[in-house]
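From the shared-data thread, chain only:
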Amino acid sequence: MKILSGRIEKGRISSIAYVGQADMKTHVSQSCRSQLFRARRCKVSAATLITSLIVTALLWPNVLCPPGHLPVAAAAASEEDTSSTTCSSTPDEDEDDADDTSSDDEEDEDEDEDEDYDREYERVSAFRRAEGSSGARATDPDDILSAPGDTYKPPPYSDVWKMSDFIVPPLRPGELKMLRWSDEWFEDKRPVQNYAARVGLPKHTVAVLRKYASDLGMLEEMNRTHYDDPLEPGTGRFHVTPAVHSGGHPLKWYIQRPGAWYASDMHWFSCADERTHESFLRALAEAGIDLLLDAVAEEYELDGLAVQGVGFVAATHADQDGYMHWDWSKTGGRAFNILIPLEQVPGSGPELYLADDTYPSDNIGEIKLHPNWGLLLGDDSWHKTHQCDHRPSGKVRATVSIYFAELTPSNVDLVSADVT
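Structure, as C-alpha cells:
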C-alpha cells in the first residue's frame, strides 16, 4: 500500500471513480481531494482502499492494469476523449526500489499536485477564518457571507419557518438533523423518511458556489436558456464556458430538459467531461462540502463517499401537477442527492413538496430552502418542484445538486445507471 500512502497525506487520496452525466461514459479522476471522498472519522482502512480499487476496476472495464500494477497518473484528456492511465510496477517484495525508479515526470506531477492542494487548502482556511471559527453555530442564520460585488440576498430565515410544514431550526456547519413533520401534522413530530435530512452549511458555501457559477457565466446562461432559448422537453445540447477554473482549458456542460411529465421548464446544467467535473469538485472543496459528507457518513455509518455527479438545476415556472419522484432507491442507504440553494427569487413561496413513505397518501408537505443548510434526499425520498411562476420578475430559481454514494461492488451498476 506504499504507493498510496504518500497521497493520503493532508487528507488526499490518489484516485476516485465517477460517472459522467452527459454520455454516461466512465472516467477515473486522479488527485481528487479527500473532502470529496471522505472516510468516516477520517480513518482510511486497508479494506476501504482495497474496495475503492475494486470499484475503480469495475467502473473502468476497458483499462485494467496487469497484476502487480496500480494506476498512478492520468494523461490530460482532450475535449473529445475521456482519460487514460499509465501503470507503474509496484512489486510487493521491493517497494523501495520501485519508488527509486519513478520517472522525473511523475515526481514533477506529484509536486504540482501538492502545490495545487496547498493553494486550495489556504483558500478554504481563509474563508473559515473570515467566519471567525471553523464550524461554530452562527447566532443569526441570516448572517450569510457574500462574494465581493455580489448583491444577491437570500430570503430571510423567517420565510423558511412560515413556508415549511417541517421542523427547520437553524443548523451549525456539519450538523445533520433528520427532517421531521411539524406538530401541526403529527403530534409526535415523526421523521418524514429514513433518508430525508438537513445538513448545516458553512456561512461561505453559497458565496463560493455563486462566485464559481458567476465567473463561468453560468448564472447568465441559466437566464438566457430559460427566457431566450429554452429546450424542448426531453432534449439537450452542449455548452462551453471560459476556462476560469480549469488552467486555461474551456469547460464543457450538457444542458438537458427533462420530459414533459415534469410539468415545468426545469433545465439541468451538468458536467459533460472530466475536466469540468474536476473544476466543480475544486469549487465544492473550497465551499466546505467535506463537512456535509462527513456528517452523512457518520449518520449512516458509511466508510467512504464519492461525488458521482454535480451540476445546476434551474426553473422559472412549474405547474402544481408536477412529477413526484425519488432520485435513488434500493441502494441500501448508500446513495444521496443534496440540494443547495444558489439563486432564490425575492418574495417567492415554498420551493419543494416532500412526501413520506406512505405516498401517494396525503402526507405531502411544503418546504423552502435556505443557505443555512442543504436538503439531503436518499433512498425513496419522494419530492417534486413546488408550483411557481417567476417569469414576471425575469428571474430564475437555481440550486446546486450533488449526487454522491458509497460505491461498492454490489451497487456500482445501480449507481452508474443513473442518468439524472
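Residues 1-46, 59-98, 123-138 have pLDDT under 50 and may be disordered.
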